[in-house]
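Run: sequence + succinic acid -> complex structure.
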Amino acid sequence: MPQITTNDPISSDRGTRLNNYNHFSVQPICGALGAEISDIDLTNIEEESCLREIHDALMEYQVIAFRDQRLAPQQLVDIGRHFGDLNINPFVEGLEEAPEVMPIRSEENHEKQFTGLWHSDLSWHKNPSLGSLLYAVDVPVSGGDTLFANMYLALSTLSSGLQEMLRGLDAVHCLDRFNADLPRHEDLAPDGAIHPVVRIHPVTRKEILFVNEYFTTRFDNMTESESAPLLKYLFENSVRPDFTCRIKWQPGTLVFWDNRCTLHYATNDYPGQRRLMHRITINGDSPGRLL
Ligand code: SIN
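>> structure
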């Protein structure tokens, strides 16, 4: 099975939107990020040129949505493995038949739907995720959309003075807000993982603001209260509507996003309805900064 290496260059830089795709059609969703990919069956993407184009589209749009797919859990795993090794979440049990697949489930009788704050998957890990694939099995009649934010724009639209200051900072990412009682895991440093606030994307070589309100608790070498005002500004500014897109799910929709340069947020607006998603998460590398 061919695998696309994570450092493959893309054919063009984002913003120019000059890529030509031969294996599928591409329709941008919003100005900031996101595209719908059509005329492709994801169970039949073995050809290396097709995988390369999917990877190029991910680099160009950061979030790519495929409609009307029919994917059993193992097929989802097979697709994900083309793009890297898959993570087995230490806290959420995977499916019996495919442990790499994490079910994200809200039932009619649940008091709370699955949601969360804006985040990048596994940013608390010393090697945060490269990307995630989320497949809709069962969705509410309305609601349960997922929002995404472009973290290249979240950085590049800041003043040059603030960008320069952020380039010198690291931040602590941990699971404190997720669950204070989670068991310790060998991949978790006792005090969380420390990552550059401005990281470099290993493929596009562009800088990204890498903080999120779910997992980033403070700047390294600063207290939480010292860090809070600037972090609050960055969290709020990063998810301005101008920097986002919104995915409305249908059963059979698969969305592939790049966790290195996006944040996402599951809306909590479908009380009393069922929503079942299957997620796989691709392992990434240790975030670096521009030298
Ligand atoms: C996630 O936060 O990874 C899942 C998002 C969603 O269920 O929409």
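>> summary
The first helix runs from residue 48 to 61. The two ends are 35 Å apart (CA to CA).
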